[in-house]
Design brief:
Helix content: 40-55%
Radius of gyration: 21 Å
Strand order of the largest sheet: 2-9-10-6-5-4
Number of strands: 12
Strand content: 5-15%
Largest sheet: 6 strands, mixed
Order of helices and strands: HHEEEHHEHHHEHEEEHEHEHHHEE
Length: 389
């Protein structure tokens, strides 16, 4: 929410000179519009999220810029990886931007979120500037984890990663939700996983505990149709992931529509805050890249399939079409945002490739939180490091 509102202020406030450069004045635009969204499939619920959503011009510009920033950031990460500036594992999020932005638009500042290793987008929307996300990817000291976490291990306030072990973030997310309930904060925790992790035993154990203790936890399965290189139909006896909670209510929705995601997440958050316990959402989405940068993404699906999804369901194009057709923005104005985003990403990449690497003496730091300094052995017994918080 913080990044979305910041993005709005920078894109919606234009100078008078720029206003003269476009063919229409801001006064010509509608202040808001109402859109129909696809009805959610439901499980164990008597009420559903609304099938209409109001989008203000302000919100639309904010969502659009945030999704474009995520898209361009991920494409830049792709480029830096191919140049061997980014090393190791790297899982990109392009194609799934509506999930991230829609979820964030429905949450409060005090709410919490934990996700899998496909975490760059949420790191950004949780408040980390693009240049510090890219600096973490390039292993620089200005990265959000001081250059020591890399692609899969990014963190910031109320965001707990970035977890490399498949499905392991789900019990951790339930623990955060338990803390919300125990401390009476009124917050909720969003715990996310992909369809590839949906068959993990620890997830079902967590569902049981969360339901038993009525934890304020929104479990979200981002179903992008392929777990690594295996389609959901080949991996799961039942692909109705929103019913996997068995005794936990569930919703299945269009994860390519930012408004549908926003409304469903609002509904889920209200459900949890009312003390009714956890809820499970399945977001039907699609990743445009392969599973990771080592996966070309076309050995188990055709190029034609990918292009068809891009042509018909690209979340950024869908939002752009809504805004232009409903007179919330002009094509020229959105192009201006595109140009500004590209410039921001290029500047961030320049920063991330020229910033210094962390010094070797920092390797043992930040092992514990608020602990006195202590000695850590290096790779050999005669190598010693001091760990400080």
């Amino acid at each position: 929410m913080l990044v979305i509102s910041t993005a709005l202020r920078s894109s919606a406030t234009k100078s008078a000179a720029r206003g003269l450069a476009v063919s229409r004045n801001y006064a010509d635009f509608a202040s808001e519009a109402t859109f129909e969204t696809k009805k959610c499939d439901c499980f164990l619920l008597e009420t559903l999220p609304p099938t209409t959503a109001v989008l203000t011009r302000e919100q639309g510009l904010s969502y659009y810029k945030t999704m474009q920033t995520i898209r361009r950031m991920e494409l830049k990460a792709d480029q830096l990886y191919k140049q061997k500036i980014i090393r190791g594992f790297c899982h990109l999020y392009d194609g799934q931007e509506a999930c991230c932005v829609g979820i964030e638009a429905a949450l409060k500042h005090e709410d919490h979120l934990i996700t899998s290793y496909r975490d760059h987008a949420f790191t950004f929307t949780r408040g980390v500037p693009v240049k510090h996300v890219l600096a973490e990817l390039t292993g620089r000291r200005s990265g959000c984890a001081k250059g020591k976490g890399g692609s899969m291990h990014m963190y910031t306030r109320n965001f707990y990663g970035g977890n490399g072990i498949v499905g392991a973030q789900i019990p951790l997310g339930a623990g955060v939700a338990w803390a919300c309930k125990y401390n009476g904060t009124g917050g909720v925790c969003v715990a996310m996983h992909g369809d590839g992790a949906a068959n993990q035993g620890q997830i079902f154990e967590t569902y049981n505990m969360a339901a038993l203790w009525k934890l304020p936890c929104i479990f979200i399965c981002e179903n992008n149709r392929y777990g690594m290189g295996t389609s959901v139909e080949r991996a799961a006896a039942s692909t109705d992931y929103y019913k996997r909670g068995e005794f936990i209510p569930g919703l299945r929705l269009d994860g390519m529509d930012v408004l549908c995601v926003r409304e469903a997440t609002k509904f889920a958050a209200e459900y949890c805050r009312a003390g009714k316990g956890p809820i499970l959402l399945e977001l039907q989405t699609y990743r445009f890249h392969g599973h990771s940068m080592s996966d070309p993404g076309v050995s188990y699906r055709t190029r034609e399939e990918i292009q068809e999804v891009k042509r018909t369901s690209d979340p950024i194009s869908l939002l752009k079409e809504k805004m232009v057709n409903s007179n919330l923005a002009s094509v020229e104005e959105l192009k201006d945002i595109d140009v500004a985003v590209r410039k921001e990403i290029e500047e961030a990449a320049q920063f991330a490739t020229t910033d210094a690497e962390p010094p070797m003496e920092d390797i043992a730091n930040h092992i514990y939180y608020k602990e006195p300094p202590f000695e850590v052995r290096g790779c050999h017994p005669w190598i010693k490091y001091k760990s400080v918080c």
